[in-house]
User: What shape does this take?
Amino acid sequence: MRIAVCVKQIPDPATPYDLDPVTHRVVRPNDQVLDDTDRFGVEVGLQLAEASEGTVTLFSMSPSGSLQGIRQALAMGADKAVIIDDENLAGSDALTTSRVLAAAIEREGFDLVIAGTESTDGYTGVVPQQIAELVDVPSLTFARKVEVTDGGIRIEQQTAGGYDVVEAPLPALLSVTSGVVEPRYPTFKGIMQAKKKPIDTLTAEDLGFSADQVGEAAAGQTITSVEPIPAREAGEIVEDDGEGYLKIVALLEQVKVI
Amino acid sequence: MSSTIRPGGETPNDFLQIDSLLDDEERLIRDTVREFVGDRVLPNVAEWFESGYLPKELAREMGAIGLLGMHLDGYGCAGTNAVSYGLACTELEAGDSGVRSFVSVQGSLAMYPIWAFGSEEQKQQWLPGMASGEIIGCFGLTEPDAGSDPGAMRTRARRDGDDWVIDGTKMWITNGGIADVAVVWAQTDEGIRGFIVPTDTPGFTANDIHHKLSLRASITSELVLDGVRLPADAALPGVVGLKGPLSCLNEARFGILFGAVGAGRASYEAALTYAKERVQFGHPIASYQLTQRKLVEMMVKVNKGMLLSVHLGRKHDDGTLTAEQISFGKMENVRDALEVAREARSILGANGITLDYPVIRHMNNLESVITYEGTNEVHTLVLGHAITGIPAFN
Assistant: This one.
């Protein structure tokens, strides 16, 4: 099985990073890390590849920088990576990102595309479904459990109240939730070998996009403003006068958790 | 000025940005060990410490990642550079000195002599299983009456036909009671030699040492060798004399000088967090000058220790590190870490004496670390010899 896994390098969530005041884009440091949610996609890809003597190819659209995050996914066991690194791509919206990734994935060939549900820096959450549409395969989204069937994939799709069982024939796209599997630790041997694994670097033009078809120029979506996260407000204190539990139940009902 | 979003808050733990001295591979190895310690050690170590226990299965988990004998080449070992090995020790010891001790003993004291001085057959037989954690090793040098002066050892191996027969007692042996194989150093007619002793050999007994108040998440044992008969090929062919065990100790001490920084860092982080949250007289205690002084001293010691470690690691990797420089690092970094842990304990007040916080665990552990692998005093005299040319302990 040829498995394409979409991954993203993001600024380390544990350290401060800046937003450009004019473009409102994240100012990307040279050293970025693998988005934690992508480790689940990589692990699912590796497990499926190991069961089918398949291959796992990583796809990522970002300024390549130090490639530390990509190497982490290669160290887990992925076979190769395809990076689309092109300054013309700066400012691309989610749909352009999907177009570029879809073009790279189709160029490489695939049986299954795996992605996380959304990135931890952008949170648009639409790229997986858009890629499925662009490469014209069914999308199995929000998988909390994945199994291979005869010629297809069956998942438990997380829903607000539980899960649906959904299945589709291959080729297909799969988006996985955090917790679908336990991602493995990269082994030291894997880390040492990762730097020898192939990383293909492509430009948008390599994939048939002209400068005006990508980036800021082609974005149908603009970020109009950014605001700092407001300071957390004090919570509501329920005094227990003997019937405090009723107020708590009412509050829980209000937020629809019971 | 750009607008700034700081999701993680300020991170004062790498004040000198020593991260920038590491390459991608070293950072990834460091981060992997940090994650492993966060997943497997930190949630459990207070309980292990209290009950005086280290789960044996941890060996295989560490072997699966590649932690055991990680800086050795071939025979199932990962073959990383020395800086990566050091960084792994820092992260392990930020968990617990006992866990780091396990890895030091397995990799630097048990596997290293087989790797460096063993025959090809010995390497093939032992190293892959030790790298995977299926075989646990220990290192028998210290004796009840021969600590800083290992040349005074009484353990003796004599020839009997082609066989070797070993008699003697080894003391303070980390991993002794859980080891499958011991590398034992003994006097012979030719000088001190190393022997690979399977612990199920008749005449070999390991007695665990109890009532420790330090390194409790670590097994420490006495090894008794009573007429232990071994075949001729049990001896390590590659070395005769004290330089054999001392070269192993240099490897282990190199790991310790990195490791101690981890224990210090964890203590400093706990104290910094606590000082910012603990309110007395209406203010966080971090706002008081006496506390700030303590916190700054701790931060400086931790960062300085890491900087020294990385420098010595680079020298190890380019083959220019001397034993005296290792003494410098082991002496200074462990002493500093112990001082940091004690200061951290004082900042945490009464809470600092419980296992709910890591500081007294690190503080007590470091009392062992400052003594083992060359006491602080002996390393001081090694440096005294180096700068005056006069040996003080001969």
